[in-house]
């Protein structure tokens, strides 16, 4: 081992930073985070350091560093642009056996400052033994994506119940077993989603019963509009924990494949024209699977609560007394807007946006057309492709200009995305001749014109390396 990893308690203890520039300020900030009383020695200070001094957060000794100045400090960090001063700081500290770090000069350090990932009381330190700070930062980034931001809250919760668990289970092995099972289940998801009351109730019940409940749970996960990179980190994490994945037609295989290899996969169809499984049977399936003790990832295209019947599924699971968690996804409107270069709102022409269902058998489609033709808004029709002519005609019949820009976005965010823009007058013909496939979205409003200027971003966005590629590399 290159260095001994330790976490040092410097709360309320004197710490010294030598230097008054940006790097020194950053080091002082780090020491303050750990609760130290920070003194700065520098003949001049600037920028952030100046502000820290003015705010009384650090003490300033306005002087050059000289022999003896390190005495009384528990830890010293030097960050000056003067080689000789940096070396002197190091030598002085070595003489007084005080831990010292000189920024960017590993040979002048008796300790190094690792890259850190913080989650409340949890600190993860990464070091490459000074070989490559960039590599350490890359590792840190990967850890950041892996560890839910709510893990700090979880650690606090576990800390609060440590004694209760100790009192309940006398044997060390019993306690270990209990905690291991607790950390493999609902508790983690409840706590990291901020549902603390439920998490506490869950924990208390389990402590009383002596064992975590044996039932499973359901996660309604938004899979986004298609591009796997548009999944949220939470969706990815849960997907990788699930015992079974229940998915719709809209969810691409690349996303389903992110689940654990052993996870069971159940396709329940649900495209508009092809209900492989009726909704109440899907609801029942989710309940049955969770009752068998399984952790069920219910993957839905876009966002589960936007035209996704996520509300009905959640009601069924909750009514069965089982835990249910919803994880939002990027809805098709947001995904398609970004990848087609059509902002949904814009100060100049659209102060609001409406998401409308374009799927209905009624003559007037059951929509309030007068409200839909109001000025200054963008309309996004989901499931409207088959009704594109009726939609355009109805908008015109209720007073919207035939010249109003309108577009169809086919398979938005996917590699074979196509965008067709025209006007209310021309769009139905365009659709007839181009035959866009499902899923497609219709956008109506002045914002469609902005695509001429912004549409190029789609090509640019594709050049960004995928998170999953980074993680897998
Ligand atoms: N819950 C989903 C919507 C389900 S309704 C969401 O929040 O996005 C299904 C409709 O969504 C499709 O008929 C289509 O209009 C739209 N849609 C979903 N994904 C799409 C995509 N990648 N490109 C274009 N439209 C899409």
Tell me about this structure:
The chain has helices spanning 22-33, 47-54, 83-96, 133-146, 151-160, 162-168, 172-182, 186-192, 196-209, 233-239, 253-256, 279-291, 310-319, 332-340, 369-372, 388-397, 427-434, 451-454, 457-462, 467-472, and strands spanning 14-18, 37-41, 59-61, 75-78, 100-102, 115-119, 122-126, 217-222, 244-247, 264-267, 295-300, 324-327, 352-357, 377-382, 405-410, 418-423, 440-444. By secondary structure, the protein is an alpha/beta fold. The chain has 3 domains: 14-113, Rossmann fold; 214-330, Cobalt-precorrin-4 Transmethylase, domain 1; 333-453, Tetrapyrrole methylase, C-terminal domain (Methyltransferase, Cobalt-precorrin-4 Transmethylase, Domain 2), CATH 3.30.950. A 5-stranded parallel beta sheet has the order 3-2-1-4-5, sandwiched between helices. Strands 10-9-11-8-12 form a 5-stranded parallel beta sheet, with helices on both faces. Strands 13-14-17-15-16 form a 5-stranded mixed beta sheet, sandwiched between helices. Strand 15 (405-410) and strand 16 (418-423) form a beta hairpin. It is globular and about 90 Å long. It binds S-adenosyl-L-homocysteine (SAH). S-adenosyl-L-homocysteine binds at residues 225-226, 250, 300-303, 306-308, 331-332, 336, 382-383, 409, 411-414, 438-441.
Please outline what is shown here.
By secondary structure, this protein is an alpha/beta fold. The chain contains 20 helices and 17 strands. The relative contact order is 0.07.
């Amino acid at each position: 081992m290159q260095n001994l990893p330790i976490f040092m308690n410097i709360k309320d203890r004197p710490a010294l930073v030598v230097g008054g520039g940006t790097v020194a300020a950053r080091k002082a900030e780090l020491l303050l985070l750990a609760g130290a009383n920070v003194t700065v020695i520098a003949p001049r200070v600037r920028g952030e350091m100046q502000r820290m001094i003015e705010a009384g957060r650090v003490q300033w000794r306005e002087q050059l560093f000289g022999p003896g100045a390190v005495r009384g400090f528990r830890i010293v960090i030097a960050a000056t642009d003067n080689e000789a001063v940096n070396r002197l700081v190091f030598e002085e500290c070595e003489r007084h056996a005080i831990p010292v770090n000189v920024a960017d000069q590993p040979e002048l350090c008796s300790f190094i400052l690792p890259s850190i990932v913080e989650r409340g009381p949890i600190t993860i330190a990464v070091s490459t033994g000074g070989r490559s700070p960039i590599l350490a930062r890359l590792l840190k980034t990967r850890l950041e994506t892996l560890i839910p931001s709510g893990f700090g809250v979880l650690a606090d919760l576990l800390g609060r119940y440590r004694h209760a668990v100790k009192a309940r289970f006398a044997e060390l092995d019993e306690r270990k077993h209990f905690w291991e099972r607790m950390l493999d289940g609902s508790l983690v998801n409840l706590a990291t989603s901020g549902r603390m009351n439920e998490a506490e109730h869950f924990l208390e019940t389990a402590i009383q019963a002596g064992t975590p409940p044996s039932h499973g749970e359901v996660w309604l996960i938004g899979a986004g509009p298609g591009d796997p990179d548009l999944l949220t980190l939470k969706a990815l994490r849960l997907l990788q924990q699930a015992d079974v994945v229940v998915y719709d037609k809209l969810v691409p295989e690349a996303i389903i494949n992110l689940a654990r290899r052993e996870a069971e996969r159940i396709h329940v169809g649900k495209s508009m024209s092809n209900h492989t499984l009726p909704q109440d049977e899907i609801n029942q399936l989710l309940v049955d699977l969770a009752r068998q003790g399984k952790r069920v990832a219910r993957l839905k295209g876009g966002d589960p609560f936007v035209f996704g019947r996520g509300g009905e599924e959640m009601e069924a699971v909750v009514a069965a007394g089982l835990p249910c968690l919803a994880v939002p996804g990027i809805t098709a409107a947001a995904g398609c807007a970004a990848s087609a270069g059509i902002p949904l709102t814009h100060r100049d022409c659209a102060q609001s946006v409406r998401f409308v269902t374009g799927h209905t058998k009624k003559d007037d489609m059951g929509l309030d057309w007068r409200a839909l033709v109001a000025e200054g808004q963008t309309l996004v029709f989901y499931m409207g492709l088959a009704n594109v002519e009726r939609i355009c005609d109805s908008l015109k019949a209720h007073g919207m200009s035939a010249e109003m820009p309108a577009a169809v976005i086919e398979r938005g965010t996917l590699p074979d995305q196509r965008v067709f823009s025209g006007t209310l007058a021309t769009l139905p013909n365009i659709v007839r001749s181009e035959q866009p496939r499902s899923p497609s979205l219709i956008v109506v409003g002045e914002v469609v014109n902005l695509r001429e200027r912004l549409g190029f971003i789609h090509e640019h966005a594709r050049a960004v390396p995928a998170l999953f590629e980074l993680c897998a590399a």
